[in-house]
Amino acid sequence: MKVRVDETTCCGAGQCVLIAPEVFDQRDEDGVVVLLTPAPAPPHHPAVREAAAVCPAAAITLDEET
């Protein structure tokens, strides 16, 4: 799995950080998503999928093929 985030689309809701803190963080100054690991380990995949699904701005995209 490969994860991408669109910082320009992110609205700073923070759901991704709550669901998958090993993969996502937020910038202190504006709350925009920070991708900590673009290729998370398989045990984190379910949480990353959930984070992408609940992102209100659809700022998280996943490539399941890699």
Task: Write up this protein.
- The chain has a single domain, classed as Alpha-Beta Plaits (2-Layer Sandwich).
- It contains two helices and four strands, in the order βαββαβ.
- The chain has helices spanning 15-19, 45-54, and strands at 2-5, 24-26, 33-35, 60-63.
- It has a two-stranded antiparallel sheet with strand order 1-4. Strands 2-3 form a two-stranded antiparallel ribbon.
- The mean pLDDT is 96.
- Keywords: 3Fe-4S, Electron transport, Iron, Iron-sulfur, Metal-binding, Transport.
Largest β-sheet summary = 2 strands, antiparallel
Radius of gyration over C-alpha positions, nearest whole angstrom: 11 Å
The portion of residues forming beta strands comes to 15-25%
Q: CATH topology, which one?
A: Alpha-Beta Plaits
State the shape. Answer: globular
Instruction: Estimate percent helicity.
Output: 10-25%
For the record, the count of structural domains works out to 1
CATH class descriptor name: Alpha Beta
The DSSP helix count reads: 2
Task: Name the average pLDDT.
Answer: 96
Euclidean distance between termini CA atoms: 5 Å
Describe the strand arrangement of the main beta sheet, using strand numbers: 1-4
Under the CATH scheme, which architecture would be assigned?
2-Layer Sandwich
Output the helix-strand order. EHEEHE
